[in-house]
Amino acid sequence: MTRRRPKLYSIPDDFLLDSYKKAIALNLCPQFITLLEKEIKRRSIRFSKRDTESPYNENESPSIH
User: Fold this and answer.
1) 13-27: string of b/e by CB count within 10 Å (b at 16+)?
2) What are the helix (H) ranges across 1-65?
3) What is the pTM of this model?
4) What are 17-51's pLDDT values in tens digits?
């Protein structure tokens, strides 16, 4: 039986990072964020923690682009 690669492996690095940043900004499910973090670490992608800060005011409701 051949083990299949998870679909997460097939997305480009820039899309993975963008998804991670948006997941944090939108305060999405912690398990989803952890999944993205593990994949970022697996790929040895470097980025600034400052890049993950939410651009939204806490009193505003973020819109999805």
Assistant:
1) eeebbebbbbbbeee
2) 13-25, 30-42
3) 0.66
4) 999 999 999 999 999 999 999 999 999 998 776 66
